[in-house]
Amino acid sequence: MGRTVTVATCALNQWALDFDGNLQRILRSIDIAKSKGARYRLGPELEICGYGCSDHYYESDTHLHSFQVLAKLLESPATQDIICDVGMPVLHRNVRYNCRVIFLNKKILLIRPKISLANAGNYRELRWFTPWNKARQVEEYFLPRIIQEVTEQETVPFGDAVLATKDTCLGAEICEELWAPNSPHIEMGLDGVEIFTNSSGSHHVLRKAHTRVDLVNSATAKNGGIYVLANQKGCDGDRLYYDGCAMISLNGETVAQGSQFSLDDVEVLVATLDLEDVRSYRAEISSRNLAASKVNPYPRVKVNFSLSCSDDVAVPTCMPIQWRHHSPEEEISLGPACWLWDYLRRSKQAGFLLPLSGGIDSSATACIVYSMCHQVCLAVRNGNAEVLADARRIVNDETYVPEDPREFCKRVFTTCYMASENSSQDTCLRAKLLAEQIGSYHINLNIDVAVKAVVGIFSMVTGRTPRFAAYGGNSRENLALQNVQARIRMVLAYLFAQLTLWTRGIAGGLLVLGSANVDESLRGYLTKYDCSSADINPIGGISKTDLKNFIQYCIENFQLTALRSIMSAPPTAELEPLVDGQVAQTDEVDMGMTYAELSIYGKLRKIAKAGPYSMFCKLINMWKEICTPREVASKVKHFFRMYSMNRHKMTTLTPSYHAENYSPDDNRFDLRPFLYNTTWSWQFRCIDKQVNAL
User: Fold this and answer.
1) Which CATH architecture has domain 328-446+497-590?
2) Cβ distance 29 to 231 under 8 Å?
3) What is the pLDDT of residues 553-568, one digit of tens each?
4) Catalytic site residue from 99, 169, 175, 554
5) Catalytic member of 45, 125, 520, 597
6) Domain boundaries, the chain
7) Quick check: is 36 catalytic?
8) 487: which residues sit within 8 A by CB, 6+ positions away?
9) What does pTM read for this prediction?
10) Other Cβ atoms closer than 10 A to 53
11) How is domain 4-302 classified at the architecture level of CATH?
């Protein structure tokens, strides 16, 4: 009688529509799983085509190529004698489903469509797929000819069923179903399913990993069982970073943990577990057994195969481990760095260019690139041949080996301090010192000639010369002169990104990095088409508060002492004239609110779904010790005026790494108008009425 089963799960760095690469990564994961003795292998959600195909799911080509890859998998010797569970879109009776295709030895056992679709935040699955609403029902699915020729099957079961092997029973969940209040694993567990699987396409959000881990462990804590979770990892073509964390849990405890951030394209987790542990755990839960006696049974697909061996008494099994979570500062150091590496190698560019101002935001961006260089050198040191090959292609040197992060940084990272007559010597020195410590190729330039030329054209045409407020100009003149400086910096950033390597006799171009944080985007405290406009932005989803903590982390972990003076300096745009050689302009004064307040406004607006009146009602209690109701009303009104006046800027926001659930990203996460009635007359009257009553 078999007791122990060996199962494998994985985290794969799949890329949307990269059918060749996706196939190779799937096959490698199966090879590794088999080499470690696994009899079942689980992969991420929609791994064949890549999760992030978006509207390409509408195209028949995507379905055709997915089936072509499936045929290759079925034919491969690697997939023999192991149950393979892969994800792909399937069209059944002209309805598109997000499916698991489970097969063994060239025979498809079951196509299991997703029941609960993810349709909030960054997810739009209901746009492309339909949920399977026929609980515990299966239908015949007629296989396309390309698959029939391999499997010699005409039809296969399609629907909500479980697999019954000779020694156990397996049931599948797909990503969102774990998060649903009526998760399938509840009823499946009551019906005798002992191994639950979950293929996910779950992305990184700061401080989120523990939620996923808790859900997996709680799934088997109440009901007993083995839970196997796979996830995608990496940047598969957009703003999200899928953060791996493949795991295996037994009876409420983690027994295998995968990495959350790494440059390994294929990571396989294998665990050997005792089925008798599940059965004995369930035996004493009387409430579970009473419910199980009344459960509506699932259709079972019988599989003439065992996950265990007949003589396995002496086989060692895995023991529970303590899950190790990253701190938020570590998450910022690692997640965006891995995302940048994927973007760099897949875009086939030669590196990055960053306008480095000497402030916290651009310095944090520089530190993330430096962390990326650390990760590359570490991966090469650990024998990652793919990372080495990518690094050699990026630097255009077939013999190169990245060993020192500073040296590698010099090759792939250019920083540029763009001074004006309004820049202080302090920020210039801070930028220069940080560039020296991380090793970037650093450029100092002055933009005054270009600024004067642009303003000169305006003066020549109109006969009027705008002045800064410090010299007697009004607010319109003052803002326009600041915007000219900011926009010229963007133009110069792209010019230097295209031609800097050319001047150095090096092939290729550079990706321009932006460095506007999530709070500034929310408030609109940026010039449209300035240096916030870039190719990508690794900190666009991160708050100023978290960035400050990350800077402190870099001081301690990377020994970047130049960051100390950057941390202590007040944030400033340096776009207005200096006073006695010193910066007179500061961000928080310009914005009329602090960064700490902005984070609170952002979380209430997006996560708590609060409009002006609800935000006021919540804040009069949150801030009752520090503000009167009238002061709270004034702050809330100011925020909503500024937010609505500047919302149009979000339509051109640089694609940013998604890290916060209060991101104002207009692309698909935070869908709002960009032309508001900025008086908010009705809403503000409600606030005023409440203030007067209080």
Assistant:
1) 3-Layer(aba) Sandwich (3.40)
2) no
3) 999 999 999 999 999 8
4) 175
5) 45
6) 4-302, 328-446+497-590, 592-693
7) no
8) 527, 529, 530
9) 0.94
10) 19
11) 4-Layer Sandwich (3.60)
